[in-house]
Specification:
There is one protein chain. With 948 residues, the chain is α/β, with parallel strands linked by helices. Helices cover 25% and strands 26% of the residues. The protein has 21 helices and 43 strands. An eight-stranded parallel β-barrel has the order 1-2-3-8-11-12-13-14, surrounded by five helices. The longest helix is centred in the middle third of the chain and has 36 residues.
């Protein structure tokens, strides 16, 4: 292979090979060459910048100036960040802009600022991505006519006859006007149709059309005896304004279903920039599309014609009947808004609703997704997108993107509980992550990014431990790279706490900033490792997407209040808790797959077992592929029900008959076509029983695990890896990990420590016993060569009755971030929140004491419970910081006979202090505001501090 082709297509360096710093991000994501055995460890130990976490860099109000741009780039580089996503955004309210003028998006001044940033970032070896537009969904003031997003909605008035009904058309317009988050002030509303129908309704024949009265501005009709409803179908052109768009990039949202408008918009952006500063290729890694959040946009002028062409019948008679009452973000807030339908007609309505969503998804793919991907290729850039929900196919929408992206949030409760009653509690990963990563795996991609640690609830209370735990939960879903949400452009001399538009307070004024590089080193090592291997999955899950679309319409947000089925994420979690790995798949993936020797093959993936979770509807071609799979020796597990209906309205009776016929043939394979009822609770135990009953082989077992303990497996041509997670932020769990024979046979197990970069031999790689501490994650690598010079990994014993506790009073020095210093004597260690004089503290507390070396010697000091970042100093020797898990130090080399001095510096979070700043509007908005009141948080050294 020629060197140029090597660089452009993405073969990865081997040890001592081509420098990777500046070219890695310009490479293909489809398949990368596995690095040699030793170079993989070197890459892990000392990762290149491209593997480091990136940050979303909000250019607040585009009030950017070159000296400050450079200062912030240098600041990020020093903190261990590897790249930035340049993201213009509206200037935050309640904030002093210091009279700094805004640059207009795509103006000469703005492009010059971009040019300067790209030049300086390259000098610092920082990668740059650039968001398309500004805010979300993107749009611009120059858009006109059908270039702007449109939506069809309904207004319904229920009436009881006998009566004479009369109402102004304006009442219907008000009722149907979409309650969007950011309505465009010059939106154009037009009633399309008005009609009356009975409640309940049996067929289209019962509709009484009143549309001829629309020109009069009033609707009048005689209502017969019984229950009826008057429907109005409203089309709103330019219904939505860009949410938080920067100057020049606000205005109406783009119509993403209009290919000409999409291409015009995208080309206008890239052409305007490149005419002034030349090609972006080699300077920008990727153009980025944030989550579209189209708020229910569902129309374009040829929508009805395209529906007719693709689905084979006329949409318009059904359109008002398949729509729900929607509100902010396009979410349904009333599923019973209109009339009820007879069972037979309900089936028809659901089929049409599914067909409508299929059509929208196809159009978005062809007109927006394909256009975006083509634009990036044309300009020598990668495409990076959060291509899920909101009009995308949740799985297939991101498969063509060079870098597909998910989303993980920080919320109160993360790490504290993981109930089965609500998937949103305790889990940082959104429901879309598994779809996005699965699509990437099916497409053979290894770089899967994540808008990570999105935080609007606990902005000043997120510790490094919280960031780690949420980030590790991304890894559980198959993510391999982090883009933090985020870093605010904020001048050094901006009034405290600075400019904050969104996200974690990732700012040099944050108490944790001096230690921020620790987590970034950790995350960089993991990304370097995982981006050179493949997520292992031996099981596939088919979600009931067609059924969900038919019953409720396609989803519009990553954390919907209504999901179907509610147990979908519980099943994949249970699979990973019990030693298997899984991907989501779709009907189209199954149809395009091949079947061979009991495996379903698609691209680089193959599965021996397929779970259909509450799937009712299948296309006959999909059912037939399932039959082939089972006939060849594969296994299908139907959870809750067996499919018994076809998809869509066309030829529904005939198609349903074919599906049912194939299901009957499948049922003859009773050992491989299986029906299982979903449990009411305890999904891990349910899956374990299914595993045993049907002999589903596990590649690893975890003894004494619990809901917080998860695992994923990655493999490449040279190594096999297990990542074991503890998602609890407060509880430790002693487990025994038993790898499968296919992992340990003819290999040697090692522990690769992502915190330090060190590796260890495993004394017993067939039965690995260890304690997983809070927010802990371990990487076990099975290699063909034993690393004989590496030390053997030994678990440090737990604190026991023989350990000594430092129980004398502590001298404490409180170094506040406001510059003040106070001293106190603490008779006993206590939560600072419970000390009235220190409940609003933010900064570093230095606890001082002394102890006498024990007769048996002192090898370790365990700080006990620490709520913050701790640094231990023994006899003047400062040791490394501890920021999660067990706050344990090996101190034997530093202990002397007799009395030893001990100093523990604990850096706290900032939330309690920010709550106390009653005259600071920014602090109050994020901590005491109505939408986000933050509780007082525990802080400091709780202990007990023991030595043994």
């Amino acid at each position: 292979m020629k060197r140029r082709t090597f660089l452009e297509r993405g073969s990865l360096l081997t040890l001592g090979g081509i420098l990777y710093n500046n070219i890695a991000w310009a490479l293909d994501n489809n398949r990368v060459q596995t690095v040699a055995h030793d170079s993989l460890y070197e890459l892990f130990k000392t990762p290149k910048p491209v593997y480091r976490p990136f940050v979303r860099w909000w250019w607040n109000g585009d009030k950017v100036e070159q000296p400050e741009l450079l200062r912030e780039l240098q600041l990020l580089k020093e903190a261990g960040i590897g790249g930035v996503e340049i993201n213009p955004i509206k200037f935050p309210q309640r904030t002093d802009d210091m009279n700094i003028p805004s640059l207009t998006w795509l103006s000469d001044g703005w492009i010059d600022a971009l040019d300067f940033t790209l030049t300086q970032a390259k000098k610092l070896d920082l990668t740059c991505d650039l968001i398309v537009g500004s805010g979300w969904p993107f749009g611009a003031e120059y858009l006109t006519g059908d270039e702007r997003a449109s939506v069809m909605t309904i207004g319904v008035k229920k009436v009881i006859g006998l009566m004479d009904f009369e109402a102004p058309l304006l009442d219907f317009i008000k009722e149907a006007d979409p309650a969007t988050t950011s309505p465009y002030p010059r939106r154009e509303l037009e009633i399309q149709k008005v009609f009356m129908l009975p409640d309940p309704m049996k067929s289209l024949d019962e509709i009484v059309d009143l549309s001829d009265q629309i020109p009069s501005g009033f609707i009048k009709t005689k209502v017969p005896r019984g229950n009826y409803a008057i429907y109005a179908l409203l089309k709103t052109n330019a219904f939505l304004e860009v949410i938080n768009g920067a100057p020049g990039a606000n205005g109406p949202v783009l119509n993403h279903y209009n290919k000409a408008a999409v291409e015009k918009y995208l080309n206008h952006m890239t052409d305007t920039i490149q005419r002034r500063i030349g090609p972006l290729k080699g300077r920008v890694r990727a153009l980025f599309v944030d989550s579209l959040e189209l708020e229910g946009a569902n129309w374009t002028p040829d929508m009805a014609a395209e529906f007719q062409k693709r689905r084979g019948y006329d949409l318009m008679p059904y359109l008002p009947l398949i729509l729900f009452k929607t509100g902010g973000m396009g979410n349904v807030y009333d599923y019973n808004y209109g009339v009820q339908f007879s069972p037979e007609f309900q089936d028809t309505i659901e089929r049409v609703r599914c067909d409508f969503d299929r059509t929208k998804i196809e159009l978005l793919k062809e007109r927006f997704v394909d256009s975006f991907e083509e634009l990036c290729k044309k300009n020598g850039l990668l495409s990076r997108a959060q291509a899920y929900g909101r009009g995308y196919h949740p799985l297939e929408g991101s498969m063509g993107m060079d870098i597909p992206e998910g989303e993980t949030w920080i919320k109160y409760g993360v790490g504290e509980e993981m109930p089965e009653t609500d998937y949103r509690i305790g889990r940082g990963y959104s429901m879309v992550n598994k779809f996005v990563s699965s699509g990437a795996h099916l497409a053979g991609k290894r770089v899967i990014s994540c808008e990570e640690c999105t935080n609007t609830d606990m902005v000043f209370n997120a510790s490094l431990e919280t960031l780690k735990l949420a980030s590790d939960q991304s890894l559980i879903t198959g993510i391999t790279h982090s883009v933090y949400h985020g870093f605010n452009y904020s001048p050094k001399n901006a009034p405290f706490p600075g400019w904050i538009r969104y996200g974690n307070f990732m700012n040099e004024r944050n108490t944790y900033w001096p230690f921020f590089k620790l987590i970034n080193d950790y995350k960089a090592r993991i990304s370097a490792l995982l981006q050179h291997a493949d997520f292992f999955a031996d099981i596939a899950i088919l979600p009931p997407l067609y059924d969900a679309w038919a019953k409720f319409g396609a989803g519009n947000e990553p954390f919907p209040s209504l999901t179907y089925p509610t147990n979908l994420s519980l099943i994949w979690e249970a699979i990973h808790q019990n030693g298997n790995g899984c991907d989501y798949i779709s009907d189209n993936i199954i149809n395009q797959a091949t079947v061979e020797n009991g495996f379903l093959h698609y691209g680089p993936r193959k599965y021996h077992t397929l779970f259909l979770v509450q799937v009712e509807s299948l296309q006959p071609v999909t059912a037939n592929k399932l039959l082939q799979f089972v006939q060849s020796g594969g296994r299908v597990v139907c959870v809750q029900n067996v499919p018994d209906r076809s998809v869509g309205k066309s030829n529904a009776i005939e198609q349903t008959g074919l599906v049912r016929k194939i299901m009957e043939e499948l049922k003859t394979f009773s050992d491989r076509f299986i029906f299982e009822k979903a449990p009411q609770e305890n999904y891990p135990e349910w899956y374990k029983q299914v595993q045993a009953k049907y002999h589903i082989p596990a590649y690893v077992t975890i003894e004494k695990g619990n809901r917080f303990i998860q695992q994923v497996r990655y493999t490449n041509e040279t190594v096999d890896m297990l990542l074991i997670f503890n998602s609890s932020i407060s509880n430790s769990t002693a487990v025994t990990i038993n790898p499968g024979a296919d992992q340990y046979q003819n290999t040697f197990g090692h522990y690769w420590d992502a915190v330090t970069g060190q590796l260890y031999q495993l004394e017993n790689d067939r039965k690995i016993s260890l304690t997983l501490y809070p927010a802990d994650m371990r990487i076990f690598v099975f290699e063909k060569t034993k690393r004989k010079k590496a030390p053997v990994y030994v678990e440090v014993p737990a604190v026991n009755d023989q350990s000594s506790i430092i129980s004398t009073p502590w001298k404490a020095e409180f170094r506040h971030i406001d510059g003040s210093v106070k001293e106190a004597v603490l008779p006993a260690l206590k939560d600072l929140k419970d000390l009235p004089d220190h409940e609003s503290f933010a900064g570093t507390v230095i606890y001082r004491n002394s102890f006498v070396k024990g007769q048996a010697g002192t090898n370790y000091i365990d700080l006990g419970e620490v709520l913050g970042i701790a640094q231990l100093t023994i006899n003047g020797k400062k040791l490394d910081a501890r920021w999660f898990g067990r706050y344990l130090y090996e101190v034997k080399p530093f202990i002397k006979a007799g009395e030893n001095s001990i100093e523990i510096a604990v850096t706290t979070t900032m939330g309690n202090y920010m709550k106390s700043l009653k005259d600071n509007p920014v602090a109050q908005y994020w901590t005491n505001g109505k939408r986000k009141p933050q509780p007082m948080r525990s802080m400091g050294l709780i202990g007990p501090v023991t030595y043994f």
